[in-house]
Amino acid sequence: MTDDEAMLRALQLAAAAQEWGDTPIGAVVLGSGGEVLAEAANEREKRGDPTAHAEVLALREAARVHGDGWRLTGASLVVTLEPCTMCAGASVLARVARVVYGADDPKAGAAGSLWDVVRDRRLNHRPEVLAGVRAEESGALLRAFFRAKRAL
């Protein structure tokens, strides 16, 4: 699966998160050969869990099925919105090779917008970052969600 195909799937997952009242963010973890290891959407509202971000849920599941314990060496995390500090940190700790995201998050992004956790030289692992994959679609989904939420 290509980054673009994975982002399309992440966008589908993100759209589904709205059904249970969650912010529409989706994530897919690809193995080194492009195979899908795991996928998830935000479930903070659904689970009542502040850590149930799409990235964390997908990384947990990928670690479970990957076969190398918690290390996701060679994997790519594909997510519709730039990861926050928690999710950026989780990607570093999981040792993913790449973080691919759609829309920038100037208010909480930790892959270059507000902070740059994933490329901090003080850390022992620094994933490659590819930003802007289907950014307009990702941003439009989020804007529509928050516009509708404010109208309530």
TrEMBL record:
<keyword id="KW-0378">Hydrolase</keyword>
<feature type="binding site">
    <location>
        <position position="53"/>
    </location>
    <ligand>
        <name>Zn(2+)</name>
    </ligand>
</feature>
<feature type="domain" description="CMP/dCMP-type deaminase">
    <location>
        <begin position="1"/>
        <end position="114"/>
    </location>
</feature>
<dbReference type="GO" id="GO:0008270">
    <property type="term" value="F:zinc ion binding"/>
</dbReference>
<dbReference type="GO" id="GO:0002100">
    <property type="term" value="P:tRNA wobble adenosine to inosine editing"/>
</dbReference>
<dbReference type="Pfam" id="PF00383">
    <property type="entry name" value="dCMP_cyt_deam_1"/>
</dbReference>
<comment type="subunit">
    <text>Homodimer.</text>
</comment>
<keyword id="KW-0479">Metal-binding</keyword>
<feature type="binding site">
    <location>
        <position position="84"/>
    </location>
    <ligand>
        <name>Zn(2+)</name>
    </ligand>
</feature>
<comment type="similarity">
    <text>Belongs to the cytidine and deoxycytidylate deaminase family.</text>
</comment>
<dbReference type="GO" id="GO:0052717">
    <property type="term" value="F:tRNA-specific adenosine-34 deaminase activity"/>
</dbReference>
<protein>
    <recommendedName>
        <fullName>tRNA-specific adenosine deaminase</fullName>
        <ecNumber>3.5.4.33</ecNumber>
    </recommendedName>
</protein>
<keyword id="KW-0819">tRNA processing</keyword>
<feature type="binding site">
    <location>
        <position position="87"/>
    </location>
    <ligand>
        <name>Zn(2+)</name>
    </ligand>
</feature>
<dbReference type="InterPro" id="IPR016193">
    <property type="entry name" value="Cytidine_deaminase-like"/>
</dbReference>
<keyword id="KW-0862">Zinc</keyword>
<comment type="function">
    <text>Catalyzes the deamination of adenosine to inosine at the wobble position 34 of tRNA(Arg2).</text>
</comment>
<dbReference type="InterPro" id="IPR002125">
    <property type="entry name" value="CMP_dCMP_dom"/>
</dbReference>
<dbReference type="InterPro" id="IPR028883">
    <property type="entry name" value="tRNA_aden_deaminase"/>
</dbReference>
<feature type="active site" description="Proton donor">
    <location>
        <position position="55"/>
    </location>
</feature>
